[in-house]
Design a protein that fits this description.
Helix content: 10-25%
Radius of gyration: 18 Å
Structural class: mainly beta
Number of helices: 3
Strand content: over 45%
Number of strands: 17
Shape: globular
Largest sheet: 10 strands, mixed
């Protein structure tokens, strides 16, 4: 197999900071390079930013950096135009790093559409968050293993997902998820995925996060995928697994609407 030279690998970055003036949140500074772009459709509340990957996906050896700062009092929602595709890797893994910083009383929702792992894909992803005790954070990361519409159910590859969330510089949430080799066979096991091919984690950190648990559980009674909700230490986590990504997405939308009191991002529809 011919290896792709390192100099042709894509290295994209999007950096932005958001602030408020006259009661409205706007992008204060934006930096884009390497095929990643950030656009701002008109939003009724806060500032809605939509990330575009003009390359159409991420391949092994590519890297993507997303770095966002929500200044004091700002209200920001960030999403993507479509699902992100992780293509088969010839050698090294793709590297994705998300960095989010929330100042005093800021609200930030990181709600990208699904990440689709193609057969043979390799991905290393890091999520680092720093927030204040009185700020509000909502995160959703959803994964789909295989191009299910094409019948790609037996998936091999590797994924290393690392989350670190700090509140007032104290680590409050840490998670390491690794799966590799015959991913499809692993997900078929009853104690792992029970043949699920879509998984997701919703994490909400806010002063009132624990009080939202009952509301989210009530909303998810209508969900038709496996899901569960827990709340502790000013945080709420909801986990999802489904053999069908569309069913999982519908459940996530129910949870987000109950949690945020708003519709899901328009590009999700």
């Amino acid at each position: 197999m011919t290896m792709v030279p390192a100099y042709v690998r894509a290295k994209g970055e999007v950096r932005a900071s958001f602030s408020t003036s006259n009661g409205r949140t706007h992008a204060e500074r934006v930096f884009e390079t390497g095929g990643l772009r950030l656009r701002f459709p008109n939003g009724e509340r806060g500032c809605e930013g939509v990330i575009l990957n003009t390359g159409g996906g991420i391949a092994g050896g590519d890297s993507a950096l997303y770095d966002f700062v929500a200044e004091a009092g700002s209200d920001v929602l960030l999403t993507t135009t479509s699902a992100e595709k992780i293509y088969r890797a010839q050698d090294g893994a793709a590297d994705v790093h998300v960095s989010l910083r929330l100042r005093e009383r800021a609200s930030l929702s990181w709600l990208p559409q699904e990440t689709i792992m193609f057969a043979g894909a390799k991905l290393k992803r890091r999520l680092d968050v720093d927030l204040c005790a009185n700020s509000s954070l909502t995160l959703v990361e959803a994964l789909v293993f295989g191009r299910l519409a094409m019948g790609e159910l037996v998936v091999e590859g590797s994924l290393h997902d690392r989350w670190r969330v700090r509140r007032d510089q104290q680590l409050i949430f840490a998670e390491e998820f690794r799966i590799d080799g015959e991913i499809g066979a692993t997900l078929d096991r009853p104690a792992v995925g029970r043949k699920g091919r879509a998984t997701a984690l919703l994490l909400h950190v806010a002063p009132d996060a624990e009080a939202k648990a009952g509301v989210i559980r009530a909303a998810l009674r209508e969900a038709t995928c496996e899901c569960g909700v827990s709340a502790w230490n000013g945080m709420l986590a909801a986990r999802f697994v489904s053999p069908v990504p569309e069913i999982q997405r519908a459940a996530i939308v129910l949870a987000l609407q109950a949690l945020r009191g708003r519709e899901a991002p328009r590009v999700w529809q």
